[in-house]
Design goal:
mainly alpha, 73% helix
């Protein structure tokens, strides 16, 4: 039973980061956002660290930045791979029950 909780916690961490990307993108559409706010600054720093990996590869199309879309897809695929790997490893170790 604890193995399922571990896998669920891993999945939730990916979803929280995906939500952080979504909130960061929504906040860029609001013109008066104060990015000096400590919470918003931490959000921007954490998310931009990941998004900058994709911004180096994917140029903006006009005024649209498509890197958050690609980064979200990669994060979902990475989440799926990590979950399957964790389940496989736990099943091989005999931790997962039937």
């Amino acid at each position: 039973m604890i193995a399922f909780k571990i896998v669920e916690a891993i999945a939730n961490c990916f979803y929280v980061f995906l939500l952080m990307i979504f909130v960061r993108c929504l906040l860029t559409w609001i013109p008066g956002v104060n990015w000096n706010n400590p919470i918003l600054n931490a959000l921007r720093s954490a998310v931009d660290l990941y998004l900058d990996l994709f911004r180096k590869i994917i140029p903006p199309v006009g005024m649209f930045d498509l890197s958050p879309i690609v980064a979200s897809f990669v994060l979902v695929f990475l989440r799926t791979g990590v979950i399957y790997a964790a389940v496989f490893i736990m099943a091989q170790m005999g931790i997962l029950g039937n």
